[in-house]
From TrEMBL:
GO terms for cellular component: plasma membrane. Keywords: Membrane, Transmembrane, Transmembrane helix. It is found in: Membrane. It is a multi-pass membrane protein. It comes from the Eukaryota. It comes from Cyclopterus lumpus (Lumpsucker). The chain crosses the membrane at residues 20-42, 62-84, 91-116, 221-246. InterPro entries: Tetraspanin/Peripherin (IPR018499), Tetraspanin_animals (IPR000301), Tetraspanin_EC2_sf (IPR008952). Pfam families: Tetraspanin. This is Tetraspanin. The gene is LOC117726481. Gene3D superfamilies: Tetraspanin (1.10.1450.10).
Length: 254
C-alpha cells in the first residue's frame, strides 16, 4: 500500500507541476506582450526626441526589450509543447531559453539603470548645444522637427530658457527673419510669431525643455525597468517549476 500511495503522490505532484507550468506560460505570454509593447511604445511614441540624445543607450534598451518580448512569445509555445510531451530534452531547451531571456532582460535593465543615473548630466551637457547649433540647419531636418515637437508637446522654449536661442546659429542667421525664438516656442503658432518673446506669446517654463525631457525619459526608463523586473521574476518561477518537473520526469520509470 505504501508503494502505491507513494506512486500516487508522485503522479499528483507531477500533475500539479504541469498545471503550474501551464499557468506560468500564460502569464509568460502576457509578460512577453508587455515587454514587446513597452519596447515598441518607447521607440514609436516619442521617437522624434531620440535624435536629441547624445548616446544610443536609451534606444538600445528599447530594442533589447523588443527582442526579448519576441523570444518570450516563441518560448511560450515551446514551453507548452515541453509540458504536454513531458520530454526531458524539450524541458531542458525550455529552461535554457528562459535563462537566455532572463539574461537579455537583465542587460536591458542594467543599461536602463546606468542611463537613468547619468541622464541629467547628459542632457545638461548636450541638449543646449544640439538645439542652438543644429536647429534649422542644412541636413539637420530630423533635429529641427524634434526640437519643434519638443517645444510644442512640453510647452517649453529653449533648453534652459528662451534666452538660449539668442546665441543660436538660427537666430543669428538671415533665415530667422528677425525672430528671437523659433515659432514653435509660441503658444499659438502663426507665421513669424517668434519675433516677440513676451510671456504672453511664448512658453516661459522654469527649467526649460531640459527639465521636461528629463522627466519624460526618466518615466520611460522606470517603466522599462519595472516591466523588465516583473517579467524576470516571473521567469525565475518558471525556471524553478521547469527544474522540478524535469526532476519528477527523470525519477519516473520508463
Amino acid at each position: 500500500m505504501s508503494a502505491v500511495y507513494k506512486d500516487d503522490q508522485e503522479d499528483w505532484l507531477t500533475v500539479c507541476l504541469k498545471y503550474l507550468l501551464f499557468v506560468f506560460n500564460f502569464l509568460f505570454w502576457v509578460g512577453g506582450a508587455a515587454v514587446l509593447g513597452v519596447g515598441v511604445w518607447t521607440l514609436v511614441e516619442k521617437s522624434d526626441y531620440l535624435s536629441l540624445l547624445a548616446s544610443s543607450t536609451f534606444v538600445v534598451s528599447a530594442y533589447i526589450l523588443i527582442v526579448a518580448g519576441g523570444l518570450v512569445v516563441v518560448t511560450g509555445f515551446l514551453g507548452c509543447c515541453a509540458v504536454i510531451r513531458e520530454q526531458k530534452s524539450c524541458l531542458s531547451t525550455y529552461f535554457f531559453c528562459l535563462l537566455l531571456i532572463f539574461l537579455i532582460e537583465l542587460v536591458a535593465g542594467v543599461l536602463a539603470y546606468v542611463y537613468y543615473q547619468r541622464l541629467s548630466d547628459e542632457l545638461k551637457q548636450h541638449l543646449n548645444q544640439t538645439m542652438t547649433d543644429n536647429y534649422a540647419q542644412p541636413g539637420k531636418e530630423a533635429i529641427t522637427l524634434a526640437v519643434d515637437r519638443l517645444q510644442q508637446d512640453f510647452k517649453c522654449c529653449g533648453s534652459n530658457n528662451s534666452h538660449d536661442w539668442m546665441v543660436s546659429v538660427y537666430v543669428s542667421s538671415k533665415q530667422a527673419e528677425d525672430r528671437v525664438v523659433p515659432d514653435s516656442c509660441c503658444k499659438t503658432i502663426t507665421p513669424h510669431c517668434g519675433k516677440r518673446d513676451h510671456p504672453s506669446n511664448i512658453y516661459k517654463v522654469e527649467g526649460g525643455c531640459i527639465t521636461k525631457l528629463e522627466q519624460f525619459l526618466a518615466d520611460h526608463l522606470l517603466v522599462i525597468g519595472a516591466v523588465g523586473i516583473g517579467v524576470a521574476c516571473l521567469q525565475v518561477c518558471g525556471m524553478v517549476f521547469t527544474s522540478c518537473l524535469y526532476r519528477r520526469i527523470k525519477m519516473e520509470p520508463y
